Amino acid sequence: MTFPEKLPIPSEVLKIAKKLEDAGFETWCVGGAIRDNLLRLENHDFDLTTSAPPAEVQRLFRRTVPVRITTFRKDIQTDGRHAVVEFGVSLMDDLARRDFTINAIAYHPIRHEWRDPFQGEQDLEKKLIRSVGDPNWRFQEDYLRILRALRFSARFEFRIHARTLEAAKANAQGLAQLSAERVRDEWFKGLQTAKKMSKLVTLWRDVGATRIWLPEMGAGSGELGAVDKLPRDPVLLSAFLAKDPASLLTRLKCSTKDIERGRAIGLWREKYPDAKDPIAVRRWLAAVGQYADDLLALLPAPRSLLTQAVEKIRAAHAPLTLKDLAVKGDDLIAAGVRPGPDVGETLARLLEEVLEDPARNTKAYLLSRV
Ligand code: ATP
Ligand code: MG
């Protein structure tokens, strides 16, 4: 592959680049959009890097712009998580601080020139993820790069260059220093973009990232084939892979809602009802509530008997919750039930009866049972 003469640049990106250049600042397109365009993959998420200092960029663009503009920079101090950067450096310095050769290609949107000091284009051709510079240093500057390597490898089905992979494994312990939020975002983004999700899971295991951040996923790989047939839902997938989903999602600082979702999946996935027993299926639906679809999605065959049984029950609008009952708490009080906990208990008992036979859900019948 050689560089195309010209790359199609969206007009709004071009406008911004022109404005910076007209003000006297060198401006280049970089990052994922350049890489993906060379791979003939769609990506409209352009990054611009410019010699304009941040204050100058702010002055030129008072309103927010639809692209990320960063100033040429160089890391002068790093601790594996944050970097202190120096501005006023060259494009070459800026490309040298980027993580992988395929992410360190620059294209000038007006002059149509290319800069590829680390042979990223050759690595695209060879389908290789390779650190810019010494992989050990680069991972020690920012351990997140280890996880980014795995994500790009699984997304493009690229190999990780031997020395880069070796360094990723050797430095995996440093991943412990990262914030849970950055790790979670990387893990979720990886699951969402991997060609095969099982490949990403294998990479995380082989490098040692799973041991540190997702220990609930264990070392086994028996269930891995099933992963690729599941919906691309990071919370669901993580829950599927973990022995204790709630604990994994808590470590990743997921939302309470997601943690509860994981907890429900962990709790109920061992207790599916007999699909041929409609009463059992209705009771199960009533008990699992909003998590029914997650639990169905995790069943081995997508169109399982249970899924069909659930569809039938839903189509019949069978009452499944207290809200669906033909009587309300007030009706019970009017019928003589003492206000207080008795009301809830009676409603729950009535729901039990209705789950057994939905035809019982009439006011007359239910009040006759009070
Ligand atoms: P994606 O398609 O996932 O957005 P991307 O390569 O554009 O991929 P971004 O996170 O958007 O990734 O970052 C844009 C660019 O910034 C990268 O291509 C890379 O050059 C650089 N970059 C991002 N994160 C790092 C990092 N942790 N270390 C070094 N360079 C980085
Ligand atoms: Mg990007």
Secondary-structure map with pairings?
Blueprint (H helix, E strand, L loop, with lengths): L10 H12 L4 E4 L1 H7 L8 E4 L3 H7 L7 E4 L2 E5 L4 E4 L4 H6 L9 E2 L6 E2 L4 H7 L1 E2 L5 H7 L2 H13 L2 E2 L1 H9 L9 H14 L3 H11 L1 H5 L10 H4 L6 H8 L3 H7 L4 H13 L9 H11 L3 H6 L7 H11 L13 H6 L6 H16 L6 H7 L1
Parallel strand pairs: 2-3, 8-9
Antiparallel strand pairs: 1-2, 4-5, 6-7
Bound molecules: adenosine-5'-triphosphate and magnesium ion.
Report on this structure.
The chain is mostly helical. Among the domains are: 1-126, Beta Polymerase, domain 2 (2-Layer Sandwich), CATH 3.30.460; 270-318, no CATH class; 321-370, no CATH class. The chain is 51% helix and 8% strand. It has helices spanning 11-22, 32-38, 54-60, 91-96, 120-126, 135-141, 144-156, 162-170, 180-193, 197-207, 209-213, 224-227, 234-241, 245-251, 256-268, 278-288, 292-297, 305-315, 329-334, 341-356, 363-369; strands at residues 27-30, 47-50, 68-71, 74-78, 83-86, 106-107, 114-115, 128-129, 159-160. The chain has a three-stranded mixed beta sheet. Strand 4 (74-78) and strand 5 (83-86) form a beta hairpin. The longest helix has 16 residues, at 341-356. The radius of gyration is 28 Å and the shape is elongated. 38% of the residues are buried. The mean pLDDT is 95. Bound molecules: adenosine-5'-triphosphate (ATP) and magnesium ion. Magnesium ion is lined by residues 31-32, 45.
